[in-house]
Design a protein that fits this description.
By secondary structure, the protein is mainly α. Helix content is about 45%, strand content about 10%. It has 8 helices and 5 strands. A 3-stranded parallel sheet has the order 3-4-5, with helices on both faces. Strands 1-2 form a two-stranded parallel ribbon. The radius of gyration is 20 Å and the shape is globular.
């Protein structure tokens, strides 16, 4: 668990505004620009902290930031989309994950890796911190490197929590859709 404020609440506090003021339509464009900038900064910071460790980085535009790091391989999966991820991540000791800028959820890559039994290093996230196989890190070079080194040496099991299986998640989604459909059906007519 972390006491670090994440995302929108951190931006609101820095600007001296309420969260409600930031989610107004006029504020969304600059807010999205700040969010994108923070995500890019955090990703580059994590990658730079991993210099000297054996790391394969998937994605585009990394060459300008870490292209000269000899312990890194910059790769593009084929096909180049998220469908390849579940196959690719099984070839590695673990996943160093970059979450979106919120602390109460995660992206699909972290959940998929854990569901496949692959340990992850994650930036302190309330959705994954407590799970076996998750090694949280703070945004300091020492914390990031420590988490990555622990990930490389991880030899334990990564059990599948029921709430992380696609069967469970799809079942939850279908149950919500059915409940919503039941709530919107017109009441039966009473005979007169």
């Amino acid at each position: 668990h972390t006491e670090i404020v994440h995302g929108l609440s951190a931006i609101a506090a820095a600007l001296g505004e309420t969260v409600e003021a930031l989610v107004q339509p006029a504020a969304l464009t600059p807010l999205c620009a700040i969010d994108s900038c923070l995500k890019r900064y955090r990703r580059v910071k994590v990658a730079q902290a991993l210099k000297g460790l054996p790391v394969d980085i998937y994605g585009e535009n990394w060459g300008q930031h870490v292209g000269d790091v000899t312990s890194f391989r910059l790769l593009t999966p084929e096909p180049n989309h998220n469908h390849a991820f579940s196959h690719i991540c099984q070839q590695y000791a673990g996943l160093v994950n970059f979450d979106p800028n919120f602390g109460h959820g995660t992206n699909e890559r972290a959940v998929t890796a854990l569901a496949l039994g692959i340990p992850i290093a994650n930036n302190f996230n309330l959705r994954t911190d407590h799970l076996t196989g998750c090694i949280p890190y703070h945004f300091s070079d020492a914390s990031i490197r420590h988490a990555a080194e622990r990930l490389l040496g991880y030899r334990g099991e990564v059990p599948l929590p029921a709430g992380n299986s696609w069967e469970y998640l799809i079942g939850q989604l279908l149950a919500e859709i059915a409940a919503e459909a039941d709530a919107t059906e017109p009441a039966a007519l009473a005979p007169t």
